[in-house]
Amino acid sequence: MAEPEPEPVHPPPPPPDSLFFSSGTYVVQIPKDQIYRIPPPENALIVERHRNPSVVTSSRRRSCCFRIFLPIFVLLLLIIILALLLPPLLTLPKPPVIELKKFKLTPSTRNFLINLDILNPNSVGSISFKSPSRVSLSFRKNQLATTKFPLIRQQHGSEKKVALSLRAKSAFPKELKRRMKNNKTKLHTSLSLKMNLAAQTIGRLSNRRNVKFVVTCSFTVNTLGKNSRILSQDCESERQ
Prior knowledge:
With about 240 residues, the protein is of the alpha+beta class. The protein has a domain at about 95-240: Immunoglobulin-like. Helices cover about 25% and strands about 40% of the residues. It has 3 helices and 9 strands, in the order H-H-E-E-E-E-E-E-H-E-E-E. The chain has helices spanning about 40-50, 55-90, 175-180, and strands at about 95-105, 110-120, 125-140, 140-150, 155, 160-170, 190-200, 210-220, 230-240. Strands 1, 2, 3, 4, 5, 6, 7, 8 and 9 form a 9-stranded antiparallel sheet that branches. Helix 1 packs across helix 2 (about 55-90). The chain is rod-shaped, with a radius of gyration of 52 Å. It is found in: Membrane. InterPro entries: NDR1-like. Keywords: Membrane, Transmembrane, Transmembrane helix. This is Late embryogenesis abundant protein LEA-2 subgroup domain-containing protein. One of its GO terms (biological process) is defense response to other organism.
């Protein structure tokens, strides 16, 4: 007699909780009103302003102050720059200061030799003497001799020695001839030296000006003979 076949054994059903953790692919749907996104920067800035109103007020004050004081600062800066630059540009150059150092008359050649010291008193710039610059020597309003002034350039604050040789072109006045023959040192003679000087000055920022200086020196010598010495002098310089 055949034995009966055994019945198949089925595994027990899984517990209820294990249904949610079994392997497989699942799709989870979340309602749209529950989806969270990163807010844009504009929203974050608005929230920050609402949270810190003092910071917003402070930034507004700074911006307002900057807009008000920046134009004032720029205006003051321009005024300072103009105050520094304009005076040197508008100030006219000072005329040279001239001093007579030596006087000598040579009767045989009718030449007068006069040595000068020239000072450029300007604190900035140079003076360039140019043509036509003339020098004349007079005795009691009678012109004795003339010559050209040398074309030299002189830097500010510097001194330069200049030798002038003036030659008479006409006869001397009788009074002057008499004094030339008399070698007495007590017979003082007063003369006048006039210089019409055309020049170009260079100041700050290479500012160039064409000017004319007139220098008049009234001086007295002890004699017109040998060993002449300048006893006194008065030189005046002006700009025209």
